[in-house]
Amino acid sequence: MTYQELQEKARAAFGGSCLACPVCNGLGCKNRMPGPGAKGTGDTSARNYAKWQEIRINMDTLCGNAPVDTVCRLFGRDFRYPFFAGPVGAVNLHYSDVCDDVRYNDILVASCAENGIAAFTGDGTNPKVMQAATAAVRKADGVGVPTVKPWNIDTIREKMELVKASGCFAVAMDVDAAGLPFLKNQTPPAGSKSVPELHDIIALTEGKPFIVKGIMTVCGAEKAAKAGATAIVVSNHGGRVLDQCPATAEVLPEIAAAMKGSGLKILIDGGIRSGVDIFKALACGADAVLIARPFVTAVYGGAAEGVKVTIDKYAAELADTMQMCGAHTLAEITPDMVRLPK
User: Fold this and answer.
1) pTM for the whole thing?
2) Where is the FMN hydroxy acid dehydrogenase domain (predicted)?
3) Of 72, 126, 147, 219, which is most buried by a Cβ count within 10 Å?
4) Count of domains in the chain?
5) DSSP code, position 143
6) Is the pLDDT at 126 greater than 90, yes or no?
7) Per mean pLDDT, which range of 178-187, 238-247, 251-260, 302-311 is the poorest?
8) E strand or H helix at 290
9) 80: β partners
10) For position 106, which CATH number holds?
């Protein structure tokens, strides 16, 4: 299966809810929700993609000709590449009923683990979503990251028991999901968390690396670190929770600079659609990236084979970019290898 064939099959499986565009840039779906679009005008999702394209690569082939090593070490574990599948929930609502969250996570977690990376799994109002996601992670020997929504503390406690039983190497919370409609007006309340509340949630993991997803400011990164987070994901939830946000590419350099030396690992998502984009993110200070929507296309268009095709595509593009810039390991990717917009 080629990447083009994968997209064609996904387009048919989506039934019009997602256009499976040749490049997933947020323009085709804009504010289509339910669907893969974004909140309000749809500006933020499109901006996420566009701002990566404004960053250019500084080519340098006057360097030693050596093999490229893309191995990424995170939380004491080696991964073949510095990118992961991001969490996606309610796929049957937003895409089509070809998949539900249970089947989607089952395919994605296993396929990512088989191909040297890990998948972040989604969460939902139906308890079976987290049950199935953590079961999939357990079957993959813990190679997966369950992502818990910012529910009330009692619900979080219940879900954390499933998380711990999965044997996962890390756990995440997408605090930016506080802007999703289904979390609003819940009883008991769900939504944004204070630093003390987040500290108490992190304590429930009993020392497991904790990733806070949804950080868009230096202040937010500092708060996450104060609460005890091991890592953050610079993310605006793909533009799905707040219109008119800056792009993640715009805020990454300042967050990375401010947190340098803190020990906090920095991941990023939002509009990353190629191995070249992955290289740009690493050069701007990220330790690794998350990619979400394209993996939905991968699962709907080709199941396990589709996931492999997608991973191979990004991996080849990343390795080629590293080779053409003289970076033979991820540690050799430096800020001077990219040109930022002025």
Assistant:
1) 0.97
2) 37-342
3) 147
4) 1
5) -
6) no
7) 178-187
8) strand 288-291
9) none
10) 3.20.20.70
For residue 281, give its domain range: 3-55+82-324
Instruction: State the residue for tokens 């139906």.
Output: 126
Beta-carbon contacts of 319 under 8 Å, excluding residues fewer than 6 positions away, are: 68, 70, 275
In contact, 137 and 144? CB cutoff 8 Å: yes
Residue 96 covered by a domain:
yes
pLDDT of residue 125: 86
**Which uninterrupted H or E stretch holds 159?**
helix 153-166
Burial classification of residue 153, based on how many CB atoms lie within 10 Å of its CB (0-12 exposed, 13-18 middle, 19 or more buried): middle
* Greatest CA separation for the chain: 62
Residue with tokens 């919370």: 173
Residues 97 and 302 sit within 8 Å (Cβ to Cβ): no
The pLDDT, as a whole number, for residue 309 is 98
Q: What does the alpha-carbon distance between residue 244 and residue 179 come to, in Å, rounded to a whole number?
A: 14
Position 257 pLDDT exceeds 90 = yes
Q: What are phi and psi of 118, to 5 degrees?
A: -135, 155
Q: Is the model's pLDDT at 130 over the cut of 80? A: yes
Of the listed ranges 22-31, 248-257, 261-270, the least confidently predicted one is 22-31
